[in-house]
Design a protein that fits this description.
This protein has five helices and 22 strands. By secondary structure, the protein is mainly beta. The protein is globular.
């Protein structure tokens, strides 16, 4: 009996160690999430955590900080257009104790942006990811880990549309519900951008009050203006949020011109929810947090 007790204790210890997530602290700056990684042999590279990017990026301005071997070109689909950019393959990225090999970086100019690169979903997949805005931590769990505390979370089906994470959501205007698939773009610092076909089809510029204009810069380098309207209510993860300033895209190119999605939630909206992303099983979990009543800019 004593031997059995010892064996069970050891098994419990091993299981507990396996269930321990990799924890990375992050900073929340102007609604965006930033964390630090090691790229090849260079440490402390500042990345924008971006669920709206299916590939990772190095800011061209950081090339001296992160020496890369440029070995090809690829198409970059920005929010308002498409352009060709250089890329570097066969790179190594390390965050915490996790190391990802053979990573391809697109090289994109971000002007005066204060970050070195973009941490895309290619680096996120293979783990269950918890974004905790109370502790400013991102936790990376193994895909088969069942120790994650999901009490208080709303479980939502995660749909991948053209490799873009989306959920079903809707806007309510004068009692009418406008529903569709909405992308989750933690790399955008706005509230919600409505894709141009959805905005045009539903004549949303007339349905809601215009309160201003917004200027946006896409990763393709384009700069464009959009009307800002006041959305009376948005239904998201079985919760209702009211009086949101949202932008209506008029794009004819790029991701904002897609007919497959109604729009894209930016991190000024998403930061109000702690989030658990399970890419493998196709679910995402949301729980309201301390940012719920922070002002919309």
């Amino acid at each position: 009996m004593k031997l059995i007790t010892i064996i069970l204790t050891l098994l419990f210890s091993v299981t507990s160690a396996q269930n321990k997530p990799v924890i990375l602290p992050f900073s929340l700056e102007n609604n965006s999430v930033y964390l630090y990684c090691k790229v090849n042999t260079t440490d402390s590279i500042k990345f924008l955590f971006d669920t709206g990017a299916n590939g990772s990026v190095i800011n061209i301005n950081a090339k001296k900080k992160v020496p890369l071997n440029i070995d090809g070109k690829s198409e970059n689909k920005g929010s308002n257009g498409v352009n060709m950019v250089d890329y570097s393959s066969h790179n190594t990225v390390q965050f915490g104790s996790i190391q990802k090999n053979d990573i391809q970086f697109a090289l994109i100019p971000y002007g005066s942006a204060d970050f070195d690169g973009v941490f895309g979903t290619d680096l996120m997949k293979g783990k269950i990811i918890e974004i905790d805005y109370h502790k400013n931590e991102i936790r990376f769990y193994e895909e088969n880990d069942r120790s994650i505390d999901l009490i208080g979370y709303e479980k939502v089906k995660l749909h991948m549309i053209d490799n873009y994470p989306t959920v079903e959501s809707s806007m309510i205007v004068d009692g009418k519900e406008y529903s569709g698939f909405f992308g989750l773009d933690s790399g955008a610092d706005d509230v919600l951008t409505i894709a141009s076909p959805f905005a045009k089809k539903n004549t949303l510029v007339k349905a809601m009050k215009t309160i201003g204009k917004a200027t946006a810069r896409g990763s393709d380098g384009s700069v464009y203006e959009m009307p800002v309207v006041l959305s009376p209510a948005v239904k998201f993860a079985q919760k209702y949020l009211y009086n949101l300033p949202i932008t209506l895209s008029g794009s004819t190119e790029g991701i904002d011109s897609t007919e497959k999605m109604a729009g894209f939630f930016g991190n000024q909206f998403l930061k109000r929810f702690n989030t658990v992303i399970d890419f493998k099983n196709g679910f995402i979990y949301f729980k309201l947090n301390k940012n719920l009543y922070s002002e919309f800019n």
